[in-house]
Structure prediction request, 303 residues.
Amino acid sequence: MHRHRAHWMACLAAPTLGWLAGCGGGDSPSLELTRERPAAVVSAAGSPGPVDGAEVMDWAERTYPQWFGAQAVTGTAPPLSFRHYPGTGTYIGIDNTRLYVMGGPFGNVPLPVGTVDDFACAVRLAQCEGPQIMSQPADAELSPGEAAQLVVQVAGGPSLSYRWFRNGVEIKGAREAQLRVLMTEQDVEAEYSVVISNDKGSVRSRVARVVRLPMPDLAAAVAIAQREGCSACHAVNTAMQGPAYSEMAVRYSGTAGARGALAASITQGSSGRWGGSMAPQSGVTPQEAQTLAAAILTLAEGR
Prediction:
């Protein structure tokens, strides 16, 4: 048996997760095949509907005859089915919903190149729609300890791929419809945009600006806390009747809308979040609650 086929069969004979780990597919380099097709699929109006593995393999033979154009020998190794091309020594296989290639320029281990649905737009291009942005990513203002979630909502497709940019430079690995922006030197005071693409075209979002708010007025926060008698229940680093301020900071920091959520907890009270309940602080105005929340969040830095 050809050594490629022997390796393919040995890998396919193992459970799916096991052979992916044991045969090295996850660490293989990228291919032209993966670069030339969209990386993700989103259900949307105009979807060509689900495609099956045979359609994708037929499409691969038409599109890449230099790799999969020779007479194929078919085979199975449940739960996989595959086609082998003796003329080029290559294989293409389907494991339920995922597509793999091997042999020739792809190397001697099965290499995952996406799900079957990832190729829906390529297989049925005439039924696809180009991406249309329905909701743009919004600007954000971050206090210390906060994070922002930039989100774009898109119609069209399927097979939509996303590429986020910071100050015009692509962010490695940012390939989803949302981007989490942390309170770091490189993330704040920056401009963000996203390019959404499929085989029908591409579109770029507006530029969303993320800025750092000034440090909170710590003296004002201390004065508010003293006026309201907060020291009876809270200390900076020690839990009393309520949690320590530093514990609150760690709980809320790094999440989108942290300042607003903590401020709401102060003015509206909370129950069960810390193993007990806290009454609403009716004497604290919404603006004062924001000042307190921003001051508390600074305690998360460096933890």
In short: The two ends are 58 Å apart (CA to CA). The longest helix spans residues 286-297.
